Amino acid sequence: MSSYMPSDFSTPSKKGGVDTISHTHYIFPVLKNSDILQCMSEVGIEVSKPELTEPQRHKDKIRKIFWHLLDYCCGVTEEELQGKTPKGMNGIVPESELELHDDFVDILFFKEMRQFMKTCGITDFSWKDLHYPTAKRLRCQLSAIINMAKFREEQLGLYEQLNEPRTELLEVLERLHTENEELRRQLEEVQAESSIKKEEFDRVAKECQELESDIARSNKLQASKREEATLLKKEVTTLKDELASATWTLQETQAEEEVLKGQIVSSPDRRKRELQTKKDYLEKEKEETRRLQQEITDGKAKMARLQQAIKDLQETMVLQRQVLDEASKYEEVKTEVEETKKEVEANQQKTAEIEESTEQAERSLFRLEEKLSHTRKQYNMKMDAVQDRLDVAREQLLIVEKERRDGMAKVEAGEAEVQNLKEQMKAEQEQTEEEIASMIAAYKELEKAFYDRNEKRMQAIEAAN
């Protein structure tokens, strides 16, 4: 469908309180009936030629056409206006005045249509156009609405074209926010696990301190037992030497006794005295032997205690080896805790980098939105400039209307200038689109780098877990 650009403004005047059209120039081209029928058919609204030429005979149909156009261009439906009507008027308005509020929807419809027609360039739309329409005014009104509909379609296309990069960036930003929340959750889980491991580490450290105290006591006990065992060994050696010496003395005494038996003489008294002396000596030797045997028994008891001490020492050494194993495990746990702390610090650093990347993405999005807003402002300013130029051309056309040839030349010059401006605007729009495309490409490269780095971080986190 072709675009309808404004060509002139209408200046309404008031006569007797009723708005009427005083000029034949509008901000839109007044179409022929055939063009109106074609355009209405394109938007899906059925209109016949008699309805355009004799609208006063088809008032209900014309009203439905306005309803369809209001819905098509503004999205205002009859059901929506019915929803805006006040409910429960029976308790507020007297019964004699209830009939005044029956056409509340008509009032809202007229209000919306009046505002809509004012936007389209018809400033004198009134109740008469709904209840007593004329072919001339209906033609102008439908031309204005069609011009607005065409302009709206073009602007919607431009808006969608400019809004598409922003929508993509918002989706990317939302996805980055989601990934950031997921990483935050994983970081909290890792911190919770680290806290549990730290508690276990403290508990193991406490147990290791207790084991170290036990080891110190065992070492002291072991040293005392070793010293006692050394003394007992020395005493046993001494007792063995004394026992061997006593045994040797006893054997010599017995041999001497045998020799003396062979030398017995007949002197009984002397022999008795010698015998008594020998008996006394023998008793002393027996007493000494019993003492030595008692010492041997004591030495055996000490040896038994020594063996028990050695056994206790061996058990202590086994316990010490167990303690050393626990200490080794403690060192391993300590190493794991240190590695976990390093991983937590690394995860915190990664989270900070992710947050920084997210902020950079948000800043890029903000810059793109500013760029888009600036482009729209430039577009609006250029449209205003075009409108101003068209206004100037219209005034010139009114001044030299009697001289049509000169006026047509000026109009053609104005149209050429408008075409030139359109081409400039198109070139600037293409340049803007290229800049936006380059910014989007740069952002996608940043996004890809961020995804790669994030994937490596996630693999590192999973490996750590």
From TrEMBL:
Residue stretches making up the Kinetochore protein Nuf2 N-terminal domain: 25-163
Gene Ontology BP, a term: mitotic spindle organization
Coiled-coil annotated residue ranges, if any: 166-200, 236-449
Ranges for domain Nuf2 DHR10-like: 282-395
Highest taxon, organism lineage: Eukaryota
Transmembrane segments: none
A cellular-component GO term for this protein: Ndc80 complex
Molecular function terms, GO-annotated: protein-containing complex binding
Cellular compartments annotated: Nucleus
UniProtKB keywords: Coiled coil, Nucleus
A Pfam family reported for this protein in Swiss-Prot or TrEMBL: Nuf2
Keyword NAD among record annotations: no
Key word Nucleus present: yes
Protein's name in the database: Nuf2 family protein
Record organism: Nitzschia inconspicua
